[in-house]
Design brief:
four-stranded antiparallel sheet; 34% helix; 18 strands; 16% strand; disordered N terminus; calcium; single chain; globular; 15 helices; metal-binding; hydrolase; alpha/beta; Sulfatase_N; 524 residues; Alkaline_phosphatase_core_sf
C-alpha cells in the first residue's frame, strides 16, 4: 500500500497544479466580467436615446414659426430647447412616398415609391431602415401610431403598411374618432373622409381619441424605458392629426373664432403665371366650397393641430417625469405640409412652400445652438444620417441625405445649401402620359421643372416674394427672360439635374417586386 501510495500521489501533482492555476485565474476573471458589464451599462447610458415625434399633414402654421392664429405651446417649447429649421422640406409631398423616403434616407426614385399603399420592402427589400439600423446597433426600437403609410381613417388601430423589421414593439391604438364618430363627421363628399376635407367637433375628451391614446401609450413606454439602464431606445410616436377627417374635442374648436379664419382671396390672379402641371392636385369639390365652408375647414384644421400639440406636450412631460430628457434627442416633424387655400389648393401634392415645407425641430443634450433658428435648407432625407451620427449607429453606404450635426452646432452653417423635392403626376389631359416635377430649394430660390421643363418651369425669389406670388420663369408671348433670371435658372438647373441623377439607381427606379413583402431583421 505504501508503495502504491508513493506511486499514485505524485502522479496527481500535475493535475492538482493545473487546478490551482485555474482557480487562481477564476476570481480575477469574474471581477473583470463584472467590470465589463458595468462598462457596457455605462456605454449604453451614454449613447443618447431618440424620441421621434411626427404629425400627419401638418404645415408650418405654428406659433414657433410665426403664425399669429394657431396655438401650439408644446411644440413651441420644444423649439425653445432645440434648433428649429426654418427651411425644412419633405422629398415628395404625399404620405407614403414621403415617409418611405425619410425612414430609408433615400430619394423617392431610389425607394421606387411615388404613391401610397406601397412600402420599401416591395421594391428594395434588403435596405436597412432608420429604426432598423438602431435595432441592429443594440437600441430598443418601438413604434406607436403612424410611421409608415396608413389608410386614414380606415387603417387606424392596425399596422397599416408597416415594416415589422423596423420595430421591436408596435402599438396601434384606436379611439372614438375611428370607432364611434364616423357617422357624425361632415364631409365635402358623402362617405369620404381620408382624402376629402371633413371635420367634426367631438363631445369626447382627449383620452378617448386616437392621438390621446397614443400619448398615453408613449408615456407608458417611456416609463418602461427609464427602468432599463442597459439599453438606449428609439421611440417613434406617430400622431394622426391634423390629417382628415379633422376630428378633435370641441374645446379645441372653441379656441378659434370662425370670423377670424384667414381666407385666400387672390386665387385667380395668383394662378395666372403658373403651369397647369403645378395645379393638378386641385379637386373639384374644393372649388365649389362657400366661404363659410372654407372657414369651417380651416377652423377644424387649426383645432386638430392644437389638439395634437396637447398630446405632444403629454409625451414631453413624460420624458421629463421619467428623468430621460437630459439624454434624449427629440425630433418633431411632419410628412409634408398643407395648403389651406393658397393658389386654390387645399391639401398636398404640390411643389409650393405650403405643401413641400414641413416643421423641423431637433432638440437634445448635444445640441450646441439650443433655442436658435437655422436658415439652411434641409430635407427629411437628412434625418437618417444625422441621428445615426449623433448616436454612433452604422448606416448603409447609399444614403442621400447630409448630416445636420454641423448646423446643430452652428446655425450659421449653410450645410449642403439646397434640398430637393419631387412629385408624380399621372397621365395628363394634354400629354396622356405620366411625368414628374422636380424642385430645388436654396436659401433664396426655388426652381421647379415639370418634365424637365417640357410641362412648365417655375422660379421664385423668397427674398422679394416669400408668398410665391410671382413666377419669374413665366414669359408669355415668347418673350425672352431677363438675362439675370435666365442665368439663375440655368445655374440651378445644373444642380437640380445632378441631384435627380444621384437619386436614380443605375438600373433605373426599382419596380415593385412583390405585393407581399418579406419580414427581414437583417440582410440575407
Amino acid at each position: 500500500m505504501l508503495l502504491h501510495r508513493r506511486f499514485v500521489v505524485p502522479a496527481l501533482y500535475p493535475f492538482l497544479f493545473l487546478c490551482m492555476v485555474l482557480f487562481a485565474f477564476m476570481v480575477p476573471r469574474q471581477v473583470d466580467a463584472q467590470e465589463t458589464d458595468a462598462q457596457e451599462v455605462d456605454q449604453a447610458t451614454q449613447r443618447p436615446n431618440v424620441l421621434f415625434l411626427i404629425s400627419d399633414d401638418l404645415n408650418c402654421r405654428l406659433g414657433c414659426y410665426g403664425d399669429p392664429h394657431v396655438k401650439t405651446p408644446n411644440i413651441d417649447r420644444l423649439a425653445a430647447r432645440g434648433v428649429r429649421f426654418e427651411n425644412g422640406y419633405c422629398q415628395l409631398p404625399h404620405c407614403g412616398p414621403s415617409r418611405n423616403s425619410m425612414l430609408c434616407g433615400l430619394y423617392p426614385d431610389s425607394t421606387g415609391i411615388l404613391s401610397n399603399n406601397l412600402i420599401f420592402r416591395q421594391t428594395i427589400p434588403n435596405h436597412v431602415s432608420l429604426s432598423q439600423a438602431f435595432r441592429l446597433s443594440g437600441y430598443f426600437a418601438a413604434r406607436i401610431g403612424k410611421l409608415y403609410h396608413y389608410n386614414v381613417p380606415k387603417s387606424i388601430g392596425t399596422d397599416g403598411h408597416d415594416d415589422p423589421a423596423s420595430w421591436e414593439m408596435q402599438i396601434n391604438p384606436a379611439g372614438c374618432d375611428r370607432l364611434i364618430e364616423q357617422p357624425d363627421i361632415v364631409s365635402l363628399k358623402k362617405g369620404s373622409f381620408g382624402a376629402t376635407l371633413s371635420w367634426y367637433a367631438s363631445p369626447r375628451s382627449d383620452d378617448q381619441h386616437t392621438d390621446g391614446k397614443i400619448a398615453e401609450e408613449a408615456a407608458w413606454v417611456l416609463e418602461r424605458c427609464a427602468k432599463r439602464k442597459d439599453r438606449p431606445f428609439f421611440l417613434a410616436v406617430g400622431f394622426y392629426r391634423p390629417h382628415t377627417p379633422y376630428v378633435a374635442p370641441a374645446e379645441y374648436f372653441e379656441q378659434y373664432d370662425l370670423a377670424d379664419m384667414p381666407l385666400v382671396d387672390d386665387v385667380e390672379e395668383d394662378r395666372a403665371d403658373v403651369p397647369e402641371a403645378a395645379l393638378l392636385s386641385q379637386k373639384a369639390e374644393q372649388d365649389r366650397m362657400s366661404d363659410d365652408q372654407r372657414r369651417h375647414a380651416i377652423q377644424a384644421y387649426y383645432a386638430s393641430t392644437t389638439f395634437m400639440d396637447a398630446q405632444v406636450g403629454k409625451v414631453l412631460d413624460a420624458l421629463d417625469a421619467n428623468g430621460l430628457a437630459d439624454n434624449t434627442i427629440v425630433v418633431f416633424t411632419s410628412d409634408h405640409g398643407y395648403h389651406l387655400g393658397a393658389k386654390g389648393l387645399w391639401q398636398k401634392r404640390s411643389l409650393y412652400e405650403e405643401s413641400a415645407r414641413v416643421p423641423y425641430i431637433v432638440a437634445g443634450p448635444s445640441i450646441g445652438e439650443a433655442g436658435k433658428v437655422a436658415q439652411a435648407p434641409v430635407g427629411l432625407v437628412d434625418l437618417y444620417p444625422t441621428l445615426a451620427e449623433m448616436c454612433q449607429v452604422e448606416t448603409p453606404d447609399n444614403l442621400h441625405g447630409q448630416s445636420l450635426t454641423p448646423i446643430l452646432d452652428d446655425v450659421q452653417n449653410s450645410g449642403r445649401g439646397y434640398t430637393m423635392s419631387q412629385v408624380y403626376r399621372g397621365p395628363n389631359r394634354q400629354t396622356k402620359k405620366a411625368f414628374q416635377g422636380y424642385s430645388i430649394r436654396t436659401k433664396r430660390y426655388r426652381l421647379t421643372l415639370w418634365e424637365d421643363g417640357k410641362q412648365g418651369t417655375e422660379l421664385y425669389d423668397y427674398e422679394n416674394d416669400p408668398l410665391e406670388k410671382t413666377n419669374l420663369a413665366f414669359h408669355p408671348d415668347g418673350q425672352e427672360l431677363p438675362v439675370g433670371i435666365q442665368q439663375t435658372i440655368d445655374r440651378l438647373s445644373v444642380t437640380l439635374r445632378a441631384e435627380i441623377a444621384k437619386g436614380i439607381p443605375e438600373g433605373g427606379m426599382p419596380p415593385v417586386k412583390d405585393h407581399r413583402w418579406p419580414i427581414m431583421m437583417v440582410n440575407p
